[in-house]
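Q: What would this chain look like folded?
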Amino acid sequence: MVERIVKDRMVVKFAGARAGTESLTWGQKAILQDMHDSGSQFSMGGMADLPEGSTVEAVAALLSGLIGRHAALRMRLGTDDAGRLCQEIAGSGQTGLDILTIPDDSDPADIARFVADLIDTWPLTRYDFHRDWPLRMAVIRHRSACLHLVWVLSHLAADGGAHILLAGDLGRDLAGRAASEPRHPQILDIARSEQEPRLRQLSGRTMRYWESQLSHIPAETFGEPARPQGQAGQQYWQARFSSPAAHLAMLAISKRTGTDAAGVTLAVIATAISRATGVHPLTLKVMVSNRFRPGMADVIAPISQSSVVTIDVADSSIDEVVAQTRSAALTAGMRAYYDPDDLTEVMARLDAERGYPARITCRVNDQRAMVMRADAEASLGELTPDQVEQRLAETSLTWLGPRDHVYGQANILVENRPDVVSLHMMWDLACLTNGQVEALLRGVEEVAVEAAFDPAAPTRFSATTAAAQR
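A: My prediction, written as structure tokens:
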């Protein structure tokens, strides 16, 4: 079917009230560095069903209005007079709306598979940030009817929270409820504010926290690679672990300890990592949305940045680790808004003082943070050990195959999937074996289930044996 799909393109003009050239925001600098380190552009895809009777012209008007309202969607990279990267927001321009016409004789199941595959693969198409607009959009048409709207959004213009906001804006348009001009700050406002003394001072204070966390870290989180990079064979791999039982167990821990699900998940993952690898204490990078900050809740821009947290699970109960993580994660969250250029300077100075370069090479990114709701967790009522036990048979570990590159030595995504703990892990085989990774992922479930109904459940990790395990 795919080879018979007809692709057309409609030119869509747009214009917006805000335009200009500004320096990159701190969030843009951070995501560009992550793109460089990981080899990925982290583009985000989405899909919406179109109302019956929708036309290509109506979708084009919707696209034009969306780009016009949000300055970040009219952003491209440029170079300022000093040769530094900057962002240029166009006041007007034109983009393209793809029209993908599926053959009339196609089966509905084939159409569904095509749309699902498009959502998965289109975000892999790379952007030229100096030439391309951040939003790509396509209409899926079958037998003259416009069925679906599919889009790809560049992470340089928006983070996951902004993507959710834009999808909501799009949904209101599709429902016939015309969206108003945004009243919140736009990406140009953010860029300007980050050059003001108040926020420059905030970044400086944040660096003192980072320095306290980075001063004594090892060269690599999981030690030096066991074999040289570039050795024959695949170096980077990925797997997905899924556990409904771990989800229920973590909810039980959350309710008992008064800790949100994100904090419990981080504590359990840290315990599983230390058990599987012997790393003690464990310093991780974590992603923080920053949307709790005044004026940032509804901003269409990349606001998320990484912070750093150190967790020591040795000779403790799991509840004690949860309490420790809750406090450490709160502090880390307050220290996740800063100029990445300041951090680069701090890391270079610390490397010189230590006498060796060091970096945090394990990152945990809880993608649920944008949409988690405490009332949804409470609606489950009282959980019992039998409920958790019954779900253990549904646990799955899937080896997804090789990757071209991985951020650091290990990157764990806590995926936004309902009623399950779903972990997508990517790692460097020169640093972690498949056996360690399997022990780590299955250990997440084991730790959660052990502690679900036992406040005294130990981490089963001792500082005295950590060195021997390594």
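DSSP finds 14 helices and 15 strands in the chain.
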